[in-house]
Amino acid sequence: MIDFDEMVKNETMADVILFLVSRGENGIAYPSIDRFFGRHKADEKYPSWNIKLIQETRALEESGEVFSAKTYGCGCKKGPNWKEPAFVTEKKYGIE
C-alpha cells in the first residue's frame, strides 16, 4: 500500500502532481488533486497549500510537463515534457 502521507511530506508538490497525473490513462481532474493534498496533510508542510497547488500546476503546464484541457471535468494529463519523478523510479513509499 502506498504511503501517500509520507509522499506529500517528503516530496515536492510538483513531483507528487507528476506522479498523480501518470496514474490514470485519462490523467486526474484538478478537484481530485486538490482533495488528495487536503486528505494527505499538505497543510502540515505548506501553510497555504491551495495557493501553492495552483502555482505548481500552472508552472507544470507552462513547462509542458502537464497538459490541462481547461474545461470542466477534464483532467490534467501527461504533457510532452513529462518525466517520471525520482521517487517513482526508486519505488519509495510502497510504489510497485
Quick overview:
This protein has helices at 4-10, 13-23, 30-39, 49-63, 86-89, and strands at 28-29, 66-68, 75-78. It has 96 residues and is mainly α. Strands 1-3-2 form a three-stranded antiparallel beta sheet.
Give a quick set of tags describing it.
mainly alpha; about 100 residues; Arc Repressor Mutant, subunit A; 5 helices; three-stranded antiparallel β-sheet; globular
Terminal residue distance:
9 Å
Beta-strand content: 5-15%
CATH architecture of the domain at 13-78: Orthogonal Bundle
**What is the C-alpha radius of gyration, as a whole number of Å?**
13 Å
Q: What characteristic shape results from the CA principal axes? A: globular
Describe the structure.
By secondary structure, this protein is mainly α. The protein has a domain at 13-78: Arc Repressor Mutant, subunit A, CATH 1.10.10. The chain has helices spanning 4-10, 13-23, 30-39, 49-63, 86-89, and strands spanning 28-29, 66-68, 75-78. It has a 3-stranded antiparallel beta sheet. It is globular, with a radius of gyration of 13 Å.
List the helices and strands and how they pair.
Blueprint: H1 4-10, H2 13-23, E1 28-29, H3 30-39, H4 49-63, E2 66-68, E3 75-78, H5 86-89
Antiparallel strand pairs: 1-3, 2-3
